[in-house]
From TrEMBL:
Protein's UniProt keywords contain Zinc: no
Phylogenetic lineage: Eukaryota, Metazoa, Ecdysozoa, Arthropoda, Crustacea
Alphabetic keyword roster: Membrane, NAD, Signal, Translocase, Transmembrane, Transmembrane helix, Transport
Pfam families in UniProt: NADH5_C (PF06455)
Signal peptide: 1-22
Superkingdom of source: Eukaryota
Residue span, NADH dehydrogenase subunit 5 C-terminal domain: 1-124
Protein name: NADH dehydrogenase subunit 5
InterPro entries linked to this entry: NADH_DH_su5_C
Residues that span the membrane, as ranges: 107-125
Length: 127
């Protein structure tokens, strides 16, 4: 045996006491002892007298409106960029690459013809 019987019994007793306490608390939650509960009057201390209702409603509202404005402006700006400069660049990219590739080939051809003409001119002048 790894645990003595007295310790096992103590664990069982604590478990049963916890279960009984939980059942009692659960039954108390469904009972209403008075027909109408007593309402506490509004005092300076329990009404958050240091922060009036205007501040408690104005600050969260301002934060929410500011967040909504920032989010909508970011969405509008993103769409504007996608519809404007970025879409123009992406639409012209195939034309740009095609023209660049063609011009690379032409430049190589022009350079080869220039070197051939230069070599021919040197041969003609030297003989």
């Amino acid at each position: 045996m790894s645990i003595p019987p007295l310790l096992k019994l103590a664990a069982l007793i604590v478990t049963i006491l916890g279960l009984l306490t939980a059942l009692e608390l659960a039954s108390l939650t469904s009972k209403q002892f008075k027909p109408t509960p007593a309402r506490t009057p509004h005092h300076f201390s329990n009404m958050l007298g240091f922060f009036p209702h205007i501040i408690h409603r104005l600050t969260p509202k301002l934060n929410l409106v500011l967040g909504q404005t920032i989010a909508s402006q970011l969405v509008d700006q993103t769409w504007l960029e996608k519809a404007g400069p970025k879409s123009l660049a992406s639409a012209n990219m195939p034309l740009i690459t095609t023209t660049s590739n063609i011009q690379q080939g032409v430049i190589k051809t022009y350079l080869a013809l220039f070197l051939l003409t230069l070599a021919l001119a040197i041969l003609v002048v030297s003989y």
